[in-house]
Design brief:
The chain is an alpha/beta fold. The protein is built from 15 helices and six strands. The termini are far apart.
Length: 365
């Protein structure tokens, strides 16, 4: 009799814990996937840039245009640009997206019947063989090994989601200080230089063509138009890349992608030298100019993202600047294009030796 009472107490306790977890996870809704049931007060603290939120939007949203890439897309590419007028666009930028995640995201995007256009914002470092897929992606709709039942059980009852809910609750209790766009820009630039010096020094690049051909074949089979874009970085990072001995590797990476995409996708290259990427930031005015277009040396702001999309759409640059930003590249023009960038790099190094020396002193000693 006593054993039966203990078993009943245990089952009731376990049931109450499960119900408590369910109520907490649904009301807090850390990934913003239960909007009808969740608490409105938590909305601004939810993890809307997570793979779980992004994947859920793809499945539920019925979007026409899918923007795929890293956090550089999440931060810098606006979905309200005129080239998306009359269509529903979704930003699927994920932090540190690697090759496997690129394939997972595009596979889900291509499986949605409403998808008509796919923008692939490809990053050089995403093809680093050392880069691992994030655990959050494995728990999202993007995962090929995660059925609908497991997905919902995880989001309603799992300990992992309960931890995510607790993080959101803690975040909502903290006083968030808003940092001005130009605050400590120099410190951010230094951090970028040191971070990418470390990334480039250990880079083990995988060939991009095999996975890209699979993605393009999948898109073609579903009648989806593809645009491939190399987003801009500040030329200080191109200098880091040159000094790491990776310039030829970068050229081969671009060439392989352009050739693999021939006849299947348009390719746009902003990863070069232009008036918007060669801003000198060794003065206060230069730092202010840099902050208008860049969050750091790798991540662009939506204002510069608008100009990227202006170029792709054949529109006048919305920032009123020079029309020298980005070019469409094909297999027929890629060698000429790469040669032009090589010449631009040599010219910039010859003419801006003082600035480049300043940049190199900011980086690792």
């Amino acid at each position: 009799m006593q054993t039966t009472r203990h078993n009943l107490t245990f089952m009731i306790t376990a049931l109450l814990i499960l119900v408590g977890a369910l109520v907490c996870n649904v009301l807090v809704d850390p990934f913003a996937i239960h909007p009808s049931w969740s608490l409105d007060g938590m909305d601004e603290f939810r993890k809307r840039r997570s793979a779980i939120h992004r994947g859920d939007r793809v499945v539920r949203g019925g979007f026409d245009v899918h923007l795929v890439g890293t956090s550089r897309v999440a931060n810098g590419i606006p979905i309200d640009h005129p080239i998306f007028s009359g269509r529903r666009a979704v930003n699927l930028g994920l932090r540190g997206l690697n090759r496997d995640e690129l394939e997972m995201v595009t596979q889900l995007s291509c499986s949605v019947p409403t998808t008509r256009q796919l923008y692939l914002f490809l990053d050089f470092f995403s093809f680093d063989q050392r880069l691992q897929a994030h655990a959050m992606t494995q728990r999202s709709r993007f995962s090929r090994h995660y059925n609908a039942v497991d997905y919902h059980v995880d989001k309603w009852l799992s300990e992992a989601t309960l931890r995510d809910s607790w993080e959101v609750i803690l975040r909502s209790r903290q006083d968030k200080q808003r940092i001005a766009a130009t605050a400590d820009v120099k410190h951010i630039a230094v951090r970028s230089l040191r971070n990418y010096d470390r990334v480039y020094s250990k880079l083990r690049l995988a060939a991009p063509a095999p996975i890209l051909r699979e993605i393009l074949a999948n898109a073609a089979a579903n009648d989806i138009e593809v645009q491939i874009v190399f987003l801009p970085v500040h030329v200080a990072l191109l200098d880091v890349l040159r000094r790491a001995g990776l310039w030829e590797t970068l050229e081969n990476w671009k060439r392989d992608i352009v050739v693999a995409a021939e006849g299947r996708a348009k390719v746009w290259d902003f990863f070069d030298y232009s008036s918007r990427t060669t801003i000198r930031f060794d003065t206060v005015g230069g730092l202010q100019d840099l902050a208008r277009g860049f969050i750091d040396l790798a991540h662009i702001r939506p204002e510069l993202g608008m100009v990227v999309l202006d170029t792709i759409g054949g529109l006048t640059p919305s920032d009123g600047g020079a029309n020298d930003f980005g070019r469409q590249v094909s297999a027929a023009t890629v060698e000429e294009h790469l040669l032009r960038i090589r010449n631009d790099a040599e010219t910039f190094e010859a003419e801006e030796q003082v600035f480049l020396e300043y940049v190199r002193q900011l980086g690792p000693s």
